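1st attempt posting a full record on here, be nice pls
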Amino acid sequence: MAPLIEVADLRTHFFTDEGVVKAVDGVAFTIPAGKTVCVVGESGSGKSITGRSILNMVPYPGRVLDGAIRWQPDGAPPVDLLALDPKGREIRAIRGKDIALISQEPMAALSPVHTIGNQMIETIRLHLGLTKADARARAAEMLAKVGIPRPKDRLDSYAFELSGGMRQRVCIALAVACGPKLLIADEPTTALDVTTQANILDLFRELRDALGVSILFITHDLGVVAEIADEVVVMYLGQVVEQGRVDDIFHRPLHPYTRALLGSVPRLTRHRPERLPTISGMVPSPFERPSGCLFHPRCDRFEQGLCDRSAPELDRYANDRVARCFKAGAGS
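the predicted structure (as tokens):
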């Protein structure tokens, strides 16, 4: 089956006074219908900009320079979202209706001066053309679906009257209100406590199974990835370094960066106190990108004269896996 959306050779750069930041540099992956794809990596890997590039909503001074975003819902002929006018009617009809974005901080996504109901009703009427009464009824239905108690009353509440977990549920309800086929969730559980985070992850799974919606889940938390992902895209400094099914990524990682990320996760099964492994060094400045393999200054498999001089390509392996490394799988 054709994927719901295909990201091909995506390049999004920021043009600043200090120089050019290659936030997304040749990224490619697909999102199958009804599946959850997690994009994972350290801060500065280009995860969030990848998500916003799909909707052509890159903030200034960023600009999508190259690539294609092939959108193919329900087997329809593919449409390249990047070929559409970013302020035109066609892309605006897709944003919020067919593809919805859930941000990391719900207080930044929700208006503090409008009620929850006003915000939801406006979106529903814009995309679905319902009457105000029908839109209000649908808004209450969506709040109930995401577990908001007394949903009809909550329509008249303001965002500051709700807890962090409740606000995030409202953002999810707003995102699914128009029946999207793809949800882009950008670190939606980072600011929440562990219990609320678990509840929100359960909610995402329920919505995926009940509505058949696909999810692009952006996170730095491998625990979240293990809970929700079907497939995983590992990014580093604007590039995809590994991609595969979640079981393969966690049990048979190919790239040294993926292995290092997994090794840095605290484990309750350790029987005695020991120093938690970490990845040496830091993500380089975007203005001082290393030559050759971008990860080589921090890699425990670094080979002088090879990794620092040549940039590895994405190679394909068994089980539809890809990895960008001269020594993919070595020492795993």
